[in-house]
Every structure is written in C-alpha cells, then in structure tokens.
Design a protein that fits this description.
The protein is an alpha/beta fold and 318 residues long. The protein contains eleven helices and 13 strands. The strands form four sheets. It has a seven-stranded parallel sheet, sandwiched between helices.
C-alpha cells in the first residue's frame, strides 16, 4: 500500500484531488490542513493544525509517506489581504515542507504551480513550453510566490536528487465552488479591460486538474514541469461575456493616472494579476502533459465559462 500525504486538504480543490486519489487502488491517503475539510475527501485520514518543520518530518516518518502533494497556496481559493502572512505560507512554509520531505526520505513531491509564472510579454511565443525562461520580472503577489517556489523547488532537487519533483503548472482554475483570482475577476460587475487590448487567456477545470495530480502522484515514470490548460485559449473580452458579464473599457491613460494617484483598485476594480496580463497573452503549451503524463483536458474553456455564466444567472434569478 503506497502512502500519500496531501497538504491543503482544507480547500475545495484539495478535496477534489483527495476524492480522485482515495479511489485509486493501493493508495493510503493522508490529508493535512490548517482546518477541517470543507467538502468530502473520500477515504482520507485527516490531520489538522499548524505543523513546524520537525513536526512535519515526524508525521512523514511515522506514516511512512512516499509521496507528498503540495496544494496549500494562500490567496487562491480565498482572497488574502495580508501579504506578509501569504508570503509566509506560500514560500517559507513550502520551504519547510521540502526540508521535512528530505529529512523523512520522501521519494516524490508534487507541487502546484501556475502557467502565469512565464509572465505576459509581447515577446512570448504563441505557445510557451515548460523550458521557457520567464519573460519579465514579476511584482510581489501570488504569481511571484508561485515563481519563487517553482525556482526554489527546482534548485532544491538539483542539490538533493534522491527526491523526484513534479511541478504541475496550472492555468487559472474556473469551476463550480472554486473561487480563484480569475473567477473573482470574471464574476464582478462590469470587469474592466484596457481599451485597444484583448489578450488571450487560458483556464482549467478543477476536475481536469485533479486528475492530473492523481496521475502525477501514482506514476513513477514522470518528473519535471508540466503545463496544464484547457484546450483552446479564449480572448479576454470573450471570456467576460461567456461568464455572463459585459466588459467595461478602460483607457490606458486613465489607468496610468490612477496608478500615480494610488487609486488603481478604484479605477481598475478587481484585477488579480499584473497589469501586463491585461495587454499581452501568456499561453502555455500542454503537449508535454498529454504525451508524458497521459493527461488530456476534458472540459473546454468555452464550456467552463458558459457554465460559470449560467451559475451566475441562476443565482440572480433565485
């Protein structure tokens, strides 16, 4: 019986991954979270609380964990205004977890990352492969924290090759009960876009993402980074309309003035990423995941967004 530990069991996405994994034959799944799960997690043993590095190592050793799946990224499913606490959990907490895995001789670590770490730039290729170097610097925030964790984890396993690392770089999750930064943008009243720009974006259904994490965890033949995206990118204004809203045009000059005056949020509304993503595309290539991981998205971007729009309409009419 292979023993897996899933860090981040207290989120909807963590629960979805747990449901998929716990149904796999020969899998003994342990869930770790700061609080109790908010959704069904199948046949999963749940541990809750705050754990130090030595305490994590002790749990991993006592349970004889072979594979760790790290999903606990603050700022994803809930907006977190405390940037210092988010940084502590996302970067420093992840470093502690990797150190505990090394001490406990864990064989494999699966880490959630983001396709947005490549950055938005006019020089980006049409489809960005996993080996792409970041095209621009990223300002402090969730995407920067993903990028820092991605880099740290890669360098960590170069120094400690006894640990196999899988980085699953997910497009923004959009789906039922999942509140991602992009979902919060799309469902606000009159989402803003920059006049004269209409970049392509990518999304991913949480069910497809959960299947990819299960595949990566149970396969002993894959390692490295993989892009996970739904088929066919969509234009930003198209995504807004499919999600049941009307896009609101914003002149670049007005946004520039708002930035100078410190009124960015008042003018731009909720835009969770760097402003470059309002101008330029960041489109990842998922062929490696299809080829080596045996993974294929089953939910198209347009279908996901239409469902989001229908859900919003149902709430308004209820």
């Amino acid at each position: 019986m292979a023993v897996f530990l899933l860090n981040g069991i207290d989120t909807y996405f963590g629960a979805q991954v747990a449901q998929v994994l716990s149904n796999q034959a020969g899998v003994d799944l342990i869930g770790l979270g700061r609080s109790a799960p908010i959704a069904s997690v199948g046949q999963t043993t749940v541990l809750t609380g705050e754990f130090s590095g030595p305490q994590l190592a002790q749990v991993l050793q006592e349970k004889r964990v072979e594979t760790v799946i790290h999903l606990a990224m603050a700022g994803e499913e809930q907006s977190n205004a405390d940037s210092e606490a988010t940084l502590q959990q996302n970067v420093l907490g992840s470093m502690l977890l990797l150190g505990a895995c090394l001490a406990a001789k864990v064989k494999r670590v699966i880490i959630r990352s983001s396709t947005l770490i490549y950055g938005a730039s006019v020089t980006n290729p049409v489809f960005i492969p996993e080996k792409q170097v970041r095209s621009c610097s990223l300002k402090p925030g969730l995407i920067r924290e993903y990028a820092d964790l991605d880099t740290f984890a890669t360098n960590f396993v170069l120094k400690h090759p006894q640990i196999e690392l899988v980085l699953l770089r997910c497009a923004s999750l959009v789906g039922e009960k999942i509140s991602s930064p992009l979902t919060r943008y799309l469902t606000q009243r009159r989402p803003r876009f920059l006049l004269g720009f209409n970049p392509r974006i990518q999304i991913l259904h949480p069910e497809d993402a959960a299947k990819a994490f299960a595949l990566a965890a149970t396969s002993k033949k894959v390692s490295g980074a993989f892009n996970l995206v739904a088929d066919q990118p969509v234009l930003l204004k198209q995504a807004i309309r499919l999600a049941g809203n009307l896009p609101f045009p914003l002149p670049s000059s007005l946004l520039a003035t708002a930035n100078i005056l410190g009124q960015r949020r008042a003018v731009l509304g909720h835009w969770p990423f760097e402003q470059a993503f309002l101008r330029y595309s960041c489109i990842a290539d998922s062929q490696k995941a299809q080829r080596e991981l045996g993974w294929q998205a089953t939910h198209s971007a347009t279908a996901i967004l239409r469902t989001l729009g229908s859900s919003k309409a149902s709430l308004l009419n209820s």
